[in-house]
Amino acid sequence: MRKMKAWRRLFYVAVFEAALIGMGSGHDYCEALSKAIMFFEGQRSGFLPQDQRLSWRQNSGLSDGWNYNTDLTGGYYDAGDNVKFGFPMAFTTTMLAWSVLEFGDVMPPNELRNALVAVRWATDYLLKTLSQPDRIFVQVGDPNSDHDCWERPEDMDTARTTYAIDAPNAASDVAGETAAALAASSMAFRSSDPGYSETLLRNAITAFEFADNYRGAYSDHENVKYNACPYYCDFNGYQDELLWGAAWLRRATEDDNFLNYIQSNGKTLGADDTINEFGWDNKHAGLNVLLSKEVIEGKTYSLESYKSSAESFICTVIPESPSSTMEYTPGGLVYRPGGSNLQHATSIAFLELVYANYLTHTSEAIPCGNVYISAQTLRQHAKRQVDYILGDNPMGLSYMVGYSNYYPQRIHHRASSLPSIKDHPQFIACKEGSIYYNSTNPNPNVLVGAIVGGPDENDDYLDDRSDFRQSEPTTYINAPFIGVLAYFAANPNFS
Question: Which residues contact 471 (CB under 8 A, 6 or more apart)?
Fold first, then answer.
């Protein structure tokens, strides 16, 4: 096996070097941005519109919410399965909206429009999860039966169980992240659709009140525990989502009540936790960067501790910093043990670019011991992550499906790996899909723009459908990458 891995790696390197000779090492960030947004159309659940570009996908999940007599159609499947998990979907939405807020002004107009369509597909669904008083719907689909099948979303015959949390039971994590998502999205739509923006903001406040009034983790609830876990348990606590939701509401409303909430509750909710991670379960680094904006712009100095924490985080990430603790592969990719590693690379690159934008308005640099990190350094580090993902890596492989001539062909994704309804109209039952799962053939449907989990700690990647840690794409890998690609699409000659 080792010899085979080494052979394959040498093959990809040779191919990659040959390609570089022919075309230079630059990347088409505009193309990558367009494809990264298009990916979300492949993750859609519900009634698909006529302008659906990934036409091999069809309607699915049309009865979602039936057991609560409510409409829960729409939203996104989180990854390569057919379940709608509210926690990562809300985080995905927050990051899509934040990408638009920070980088929408430099996106090509058509891609800004597509990005807002991607946001709205999620927010329309998140509004439905708050449609009944003192209740939040947190998940649709039984993941245990779903994961026991290899089935197209259009053919699903597994249980579409709806999971709800009713007051006074707690769902601070999902509700807090939903509040953040709707608040951020309300700002994204403020100029193009003021009425929708107001609806989003009003529901964001409702979600936050639910999160704050009934404190606790949604995955502690007996009805949810064995279905959210081990997939999207709240492993790191619900406290960060309360501060995260409040921070986004502060930014969306400029209401001092939310500022006071952050100041009053910060210590008890773990604001001092400086963890060099940012993702669907841990918001601390993103929270610190988000709140730093007010300090850097001179609006308030009462949040100075968050700015200090943001800079401590950056010092742990940048390799040149004496306090760097982040692991990297030999090829230079951010690496954290576990699955879907590229989620860390895309989210950290996003925070670096956002903070660099904030610093651009000042003459500040970040002190990391005796080293000072400038906005330029942050952007260079982010660009190394981007270029690695797009193909500048030891494998010579683009980890974005459909970008370049060399990308993963056998991704862990049901809809992509099974023949489409157009090509195979007959029903494919739960276990009948196994022949496609076990096949060594490339996936018949190209999930354009999907970013897979990525290589291991040695920069090795086996194009193996069964290795979901490496080959499965997720919405929360792509979402922060939208903003990152938008920046470099507007600054293609940055070095």
Answer: 408, 410, 411, 412, 452, 453, 463, 464, 465
Domain boundaries, the chain: 1-20+27-42+327-341+374-411+447-495, 45-237+418-436
Q: Is 277 a catalytic residue?
A: no
Phi, psi of 356 (to 5 degrees): -60, -40
Above 70 in pLDDT, residue 318?
A: yes
- Confidence at residue 25, expressed as pLDDT on a 0 to 100 scale: 54
Q: At what angle do helices 342-360 and 304-317 cross, to 10 degrees?
A: 130
CB 419 within 8 A of CB 38: no
Range in 75-79, 267-271, 327-331, 401-405 with the lowest mean pLDDT: 267-271
Q: Which two tokens stand for residue 366?
A: 């970040």
Backbone angles phi, psi at 465, to 5 degrees: -60, -30
Q: Which residue has the tokens 């009034």?
A: 213
User: What's this model's pTM, rounded to 2 decimal places?
Assistant: 0.94
**Cis-peptide, bond into residue 168, ω within 30° of zero:** yes
Tell me the pLDDT of the chain averaged across its residues.
92
Instruction: Quote the CA–CA distance of 290 and 343 in Å, as a whole number.
Output: 19
The residue written with tokens 């990190």 in the block is: 373
Collapsing DSSP states into helix, strand and coil, what is residue 388? Answer: helix
Second CATH level (architecture) for the domain 45-237+418-436: Alpha/alpha barrel (1.50)
- Active-site choice (221, 381, 412, 413): 412
Task: Specify whether 193 is catalytic.
Answer: no
Q: Which two three-digit tokens encode residue 412? A: 């862990």
3-state SS of 448-462 is: CCCECCCCCCCCCCC
> Which of residues 14 and 110 earns the better pLDDT score?
110
Helices 342-360 & 475-490 angle (0-180, nearest 10): 40
E strands, 30-143, are 84-85, 135-140
Helix H or strand E segment including 95: helix 86-103
Examine the residue annotation and report whether 255 is marked as an active-site residue of this protein.
no
d(CA 243, CA 469): 30
Question: pLDDT, tens digit, for every residue of 122-179?
Answer: 999 999 999 999 999 999 999 999 999 999 999 999 989 999 999 999 999 999 999 9
Kindly name the residue from 41, 177, 294, 463 that is annotated as catalytic. Answer: 463
